[in-house]
Amino acid sequence: MNHKKIRYLAEMGVEAFWYKNSRHLSRFEENNNSKLDDVKREIDNCERCDLSENRGSIVFGSGDEKSRVMIIGEAPGKDEDASGEPFVGRAGKLLDEILFAMGLSRKEVYITNTVKCRPPSNRNPNDDEILSCSDFLDKQIDSIKPSIIILLGKVAANRMLGINESMAFFRKKVFDFGNTKIPLFVFYHPAYLLRSPSQKKNLWDDINFIKGYLRKNGGSLN
Ligand code: URA
């Protein structure tokens, strides 16, 4: 959306959340991404929770550090712990396919997790671990300033939103991320879809739900 159109819509009082946070505006109001480097430095050698004891690497996040779309998974697994990159295993390959279906590539989004270190035996991260890491995640969001956030799976969704619900509750709804008012959507976790491939058909509805929401608000995924 060009600058003229943004002003025209703003004058009409049209909801401006999308381009407020978008790359288009960042031409005028640069995202300060050295802030993300500060967070990377801060997390180095972190020992805020017990997950630090057995980790191979801190999996901070990867992708476009100015992306409009931020994807938040649960926790690094074995492959991620070994490589230091999020979603590089089988679930990661499926995530790439999901992004492709959205018309996006991994390079165009920013991917991270609720916790940055692998829980032993790939168990779910617990509340304390997510809380210990939440300061880093908040700072990542604050530096990247995405226009939308997509949480993967109900474990991440329940913990991030402070509720206890099933996926059926989360699907095709818009939430706000904390005080930021960044619209947040919840998708099935790719690892769950690998175990329950019959649910993949629902993903298309979820993607269309986001697209419809963005269309109404003058945005798009790409
Ligand atoms: N599952 C996640 O939630 N995150 C990863 O990075 C890999 C698998």
Largest sheet: 6 strands, mixed
Bound molecules: uracil
- How many H/I helices? 11
Q: Output the structural class.
A: alpha/beta
CATH topology type? Uracil-DNA Glycosylase, subunit E
- Given as residue ranges, the uncertain stretches (5+ residues, pLDDT < 50) are 11-32
Widest sheet, order of strands: 1-3-2-4-6-5
Give me the strand/helix succession: HHHHEEHHEHEHHEEHH
Overall mean confidence score, pLDDT: 88
- Using the alpha-carbon principal axes, give the shape: globular
Termini gap: 11 Å
Oligomer: single chain
The CATH top-level class label = Alpha Beta
CATH architecture grouping: 3-Layer(aba) Sandwich
Instruction: Please provide the count of β strands.
Output: 6
What's the structural blueprint in terms of helices and strands?
Elements: H1 3-11, H2 17-20, H3 23-26, H4 34-43, E1 62-63, E2 69-73, H5 78-83, H6 90-101, E3 110-113, H7 127-144, E4 148-152, H8 154-161, H9 167-170, E5 175-177, E6 182-187, H10 190-195, H11 200-216
Parallel strand pairs: 2-3, 2-4, 4-6
Antiparallel strand pairs: 1-3, 5-6
Helix pairs in contact: 4-7
This protein binds uracil.
